[in-house]
Structure formats: C-alpha cells, structure tokens
Amino acid sequence: MSKSTDYKNKFIAQKYDRINLTVPKGLKEEISQRAEELGLSVNGYLNALVKKDFESHILRSNDRRREMDVFLL
Fold first, then answer.
1. pLDDT truncated to tens, each residue of the chain (73 aa)?
2. Contact, 67 vs 60, CB < 8 A?
3. Are 65 and 50 in contact (CB under 8 A)?
4. Of 16, 35, 68, 73, which is the most exposed, with the fewest CB atoms less than 10 Å away?
5. What is the 3-state secondary structure (H, E, C) of the chain?
6. Per-residue model confidence (pLDDT) at position 62
C-alpha cells in the first residue's frame, strides 16, 4: 500500500468506529437509490437516519422527565 493509503486507513481507525450492517436482499439497492435522491452517500444517509432517531429519542426522554417533574411537585 502507498503511504497515502496507510495514512488514511490509520486516521479512519483512530477517528471512526465501524458497524457492519446486513439487510434483506434487494434493500441495499433501495437504500442506495434513496441516498442518491437525497444527494448523500449511503454512509451519510444511514448516519443521518441514526442521528435523527437519537435526537427524537432525546426529545421524547426530556418530555417524559418534564412530565415526571410536574407530577412530583
């Protein structure tokens, strides 16, 4: 491998975690098409979906905490 490739691989290993995702046959192509429609890479699309879900989960959790705070007052 070239020094450039070695550097990139080392940087990625230090800065990122990898997740292997297995999907039903045919879904990979659908995911790729949707990502392309949105102007994203498959990785960018999946990261955006995960981020959106986490943000939604945090908002729901905060709402539940506020409800409990009111209940406990």
1. 788 999 999 999 999 999 999 999 999 999 999 999 999 999 999 999 999 988 887 877 776 766 666 655 5
2. no
3. no
4. 73
5. CCHHHHHHHHHHHHHCCCCCCCCCCCHHHHHHHHHHHCCCCHHHHHHHHHHHHHHHHHHHHHHHHHHHHHHHC
6. 73
Residue 65 is which amino acid? R
Contacts of 21 (CB under 8 A, 6+ apart): 46
pTM of the model: 0.68
What is the spatial distance between Cα 67 and Cα 20, in angstroms, rounded to a whole number?
38
Spell out a b/e string for 52-69, using b for 16 or more CB atoms within 10 Å of the CB, else e.
eeeeeeeeeeeeeeeeee
